[in-house]
Amino acid sequence: MPDDLYHTDILGWSKAQAERLRRVATGELVNDVDWEHVIEEVEDVGNSQLSAVKSHLGLAMLHALKALAWPEHRDAEHWQQEIAVFLANAQDGFQPGMQQHVDPAEIYARALKRLRKLPPIGDVPPRALPEAVALTAAELRSEDFGALDLLDRIRSALPPA
Predict the structure, then answer these.
(1) Is residue 19 in a domain?
(2) Rounded Cα distance, 121 and 109, in Å
(3) Which of 13, 72, 132, 142 has a beta carbon 3.0–4.6 Å from 5's, enabling a disulfide?
(4) One pLDDT digit (tens) per residue for the chain, 161 residues
(5) Which domain of life does this protein belong to (predicted)?
């Protein structure tokens, strides 16, 4: 097997490494396991899954912020539908062990920052939005927590008018 297979055919490399690891698991001495890259890939799997969950949560929050900042905009209903999709995608991948690595306050702050960097949406300035929202990773992980819950939580953090 060529030494550069990892860089030229990751699928072929992964299948070959999996077969070698199966042989190791049966007690066979195998000398050509690419341990450095196997370890790196195993580590990357968890990081990738965590990153996907955080990304979906961030997009859900960004769409919630857009829907609340411009509630009369023609796309507001679409943004609310997107919140539900992004939350469901996050919840599908959200494993219990990830909770300690998900900081809802940080994700919200990034979504708010991204919203403020967007070009103007229509001719109407955005409504005021809270700087922070009380959310927990456990709530966001729960399939019982949906788009309306996220919108209500952000609304409840708004200062009284």
Answers:
(1) yes
(2) 20
(3) 13
(4) 445 788 888 788 888 888 999 999 999 898 888 988 988 888 888 789 999 999 999 999 999 999 999 999 999 999 999 999 999 999 999 998 999 999 999 999 999 999 999 988 888 889 999 999 999 999 999 999 999 999 999 999 998 86
(5) Bacteria
Residues 57 and 3 grouped into a single domain = no
Give the separation between CA 131 and CA 122, rounded to whole angstroms: 23
CA distances from residue 128 to 79, 81, 134, 149 in whole angstroms, order as listed? 18, 22, 17, 19
Domains held by the chain: number? 2
Tokens encoding 2: 């060529």
> 4 and 55 share a domain?
no
> Is the residue at 38 inside a domain?
no
Q: Is residue 54 part of a domain?
A: yes
Convert 79-109 to b/e letters by CB count within 10 Å (16 or more is b): bbebbeebbebbbebbeeebeeebebeebbe
Would you state the structure tokens that stand for residue 113, as one six-digit string? Answer: 């920052």
Asked whether residue 39 is assigned to any structural domain, the reply reads no
Domain containing residue 62: 47-156
Q: For residue 110, what are the CA distances in angstroms to 58, 74, 95, 113, 161?
A: 7, 25, 22, 5, 25
Looking at the fold, whether 133 and 58 belong to one and the same domain comes out as: yes
